[in-house]
From TrEMBL:
Domain UDP-N-acetylglucosamine 2-epimerase: from-to ranges: 24-351
E.C. numbers: 5.1.3.14
A molecular function (GO) term: UDP-N-acetylglucosamine 2-epimerase activity
Record's protein name: UDP-N-acetylglucosamine 2-epimerase (Non-hydrolyzing)
Pfam families named in the record: Epimerase_2
Organism: Methanoculleus nereidis
InterPro entries: UDP_GlcNAc_Epimerase_2_dom (IPR003331), WecB-like (IPR029767)
């Protein structure tokens, strides 16, 4: 089967690494990078570290408003699909690259497979939620990471082509956990011993675009009492500068560093006391690594982590964040919520089973 896989943003590179490795055992894959993320530390580092094949196309779309960015991708992806004539198009997650890929393919009557289908935060003000809903409804194969995702799709009337395969981020974690421990020097670089420090990531517009939210988050972190390592997403760095908050960051407690490669990130997270984040992927990884997670949002699409007692939603309220830093502690044992690390194998097998009779 000829598969065009579309990626463009940091979490998609991580997700595509195990899937691409599997697919290429039996299928022809053409990898398209939209160029949504383009800094070395947001893109190339993942291709190098995770040995992801070099993209066959880099569309170089770059940053822009939602409409301009998605529209530019749509046109450029359509050109690639017309030239390559794949049997199926594979998209990941919930970014503008995901939506553009799914839409371009659906309009050309090429079947779409969505990895990480069925996730819902039920918050339509999140750009990702719009992308998730539209992508799922344009997809023919929906690879769900959790039972909740399958139920969410059923509630919207989507039951055909739905497969519960587990989470490909679990595959990536299982494959790279020991490699990270062996190769990463991040703790030495930031001068920290395992334990006793916090890791924070923030990049959701609901936080970065609000001076009040960012001031509350930094305020709580400044008083945490433990050192905090803060790999700063480029969007966040830009917004902190605009809010006049970069200069005010208390350097002795908050160590703002450039975005990290995946191996450094998982070693850093694995030895943290707690993780604070508004990222989707980081909430899951905290759970997989058995580190308590404090989520700087009012809602989450990864509800299982909250129900299991390993994740708490605190929004961006300074007092709630400070309380959680000091007193949040998981109530239960951590178990395998996201599958057993064979989601990519199952995806390959399902696609192989469809050879000669692709969906659509
Ligand atoms: C995007 C996704 C989000 C995902 C995140 C992962 C959408 C709508 N959002 O958010 O779902 O969680 O990626 O990290 O698709 N920038 C750089 N260098 C880069 C990339 C971005 O400087 O390599 C800056 C630019 O100023 C850009 C801003 O970051 O305008 C935002 O980038 P964009 O890709 O639009 O959205 P993210 O916030 O990264
Ligand atoms: N990540 C990374 N370096 C960083 C921050 C995050 O490698 O500095 C990884 C993280 O471990 C996870 C993925 O990027 O695998 C999550 O991506 P992000 O938070 O950008 O997006 P989201 O998951 O919210 O869509």
């Amino acid at each position: 089967m000829k598969i065009v896989s579309i990626v463009g943003a940091r979490p998609q590179f991580i997700k595509c690494a195990p899937v691409s490795r599997e697919l290429r055992k039996e299928h022809e894959e053409v990898l398209v990078h939209t160029g949504q993320h383009y800094d070395h530390g947001m893109s190339e580092v993942f291709f190098e570290e995770l040995r992801i094949p070099k993209p066959d196309y880099n569309l170089g779309i770059g940053s822009g408003t939602h409409g301009h960015q998605t529209g530019a991708m749509l046109g450029a992806i359509e050109d690639v699909l017309e030239k390559e004539e794949p049997d199926i198009v594979l998209v990941y997650g919930d970014t503008n690259s995901t939506l553009a890929g799914a839409l371009a393919a659906a309009k050309l009557h090429i079947p779409v497979a969505h990895i990480e289908a069925g996730l819902r935060s039920f918050d339509r003000r999140m750009p990702e939620e719009v992308n998730r809903v539209l992508t799922d409804h344009a997809s023919d194969l929906l690879f769900c990471p959790t039972e909740t995702a399958v139920r969410n799709l059923a509630a919207e009337g989507v039951t055909e082509g739905v497969f519960l395969v587990g989470d490909v981020m679990c595959d990536a974690m299982n494959y790279n956990r020991a490699i990270a421990e062996e190769r990463s020097r991040i703790l030495e670089d930031v001068g920290l011993e395992p334990g006793g420090y916090l890791v924070v990531t923030v990049h959701r517009p609901s936080n970065t675009d609000s001076q009040e939210n960012m001031a509350a988050i930094l305020g709580a972190l400044g008083e945490a009492g433990n050192p905090v390592v803060f790999p700063v997403h480029p969007r966040t760095r830009k917004c902190l500068g605009e809010h006049g908050l970069l200069a005010e960051m208390p350097e002795n407690t908050i160590r703002a560093v450039e975005p990290l490669g995946y191996l450094d990130m998982i070693r850093l997270m694995a030895h943290a006391e707690k993780i604070l984040t508004d990222s989707g992927g980081v909430q899951k990884e905290a759970y997989m690594l058995g580190v308590p997670c404090i989520t700087l949002r009012e809602n989450t699409e990864w509800v299982e982590t909250v129900e299991a007692g390993w994740n708490v939603l605190v929004g961006a309220e300074r007092e709630k964040i400070a309380d959680a830093i000091h007193s949040f502690s998981p109530a239960s044992r951590q178990e395998g919520l996201f599958g057993s690390g064979d989601a990519s194998v199952r995806i390959r097998e399902i696609l192989t089973g469809l050879q000669g009779a692709p969906p659509g």
